[in-house]
Design brief:
With 154 residues, the chain is mostly helical. It has one domain. 70% of the residues lie in helices and 3% in strands. The chain has six helices and two strands. A two-stranded antiparallel ribbon has the order 1-2. Helix 2 runs antiparallel to helix 6. The longest helix is centred in the middle third of the chain and has 33 residues. The N and C termini lie far apart (37 Å).
């Protein structure tokens, strides 16, 4: 399916992340509800394409996220957090922090690539409107996320 493009998804994600207070809301979903930001962004992306996931496919996508989170992203974030807590006054802190942020973005892109890879082998249904977020978030969190896309930054 040509609409499922890694680069298009990445650019969509970067744009959404900067909209309104989306960054704040997505980070809260990650930190407080243990939700995966890339998966939330993918569900939003699919909704713009009117493509609907099945529960089975959603389970596969969650497994991909959990695996990459567990083995790569969470340990990487822990290193960055430790650096900040223990070495914030070190002369190389800013440079190292920027390198870690850059590598974390590359890991996020890897995760997104893996998610798109799963979808490229799946059968997606066109439904207008699609409602993929309901497979992952409760109604209150969906509303909060959608409102954050138009709300001012905190």
């Amino acid at each position: 399916m040509s609409t499922l493009d890694e680069q298009a998804f990445w650019l969509f994600s970067c744009a959404v992340y900067q909209q309104g207070s989306a960054q704040h809301t997505l980070l809260n979903l990650q930190d407080e509800q243990q939700k995966n930001i890339n998966l939330c962004l993918l569900l939003l992306y699919l909704e713009t394409l009117n493509l609907q996931l099945t529960e089975h496919l959603m389970t596969q996508l969650e497994a991909v996220c959990k695996d990459l989170d567990t083995h790569l992203l969470i340990p990487h974030r822990a290193i960055r957090k430790t650096l900040k807590q223990q070495f914030i006054d070190h002369q190389s802190y800013s440079k190292i922090r920027q390198q870690l942020l850059n590598s974390e973005l590359q890991l996020e892109q890897l995760q997104q690539s893996e998610l798109i890879g799963v979808l490229k082998h799946a059968h997606l249904t066109t439904i207008i409107p699609s409602n993929n977020l309901a497979l992952y978030l409760d109604k209150n969190h969906i509303k909060q996320l959608k409102m954050s896309l138009i709300a001012d930054k905190p």
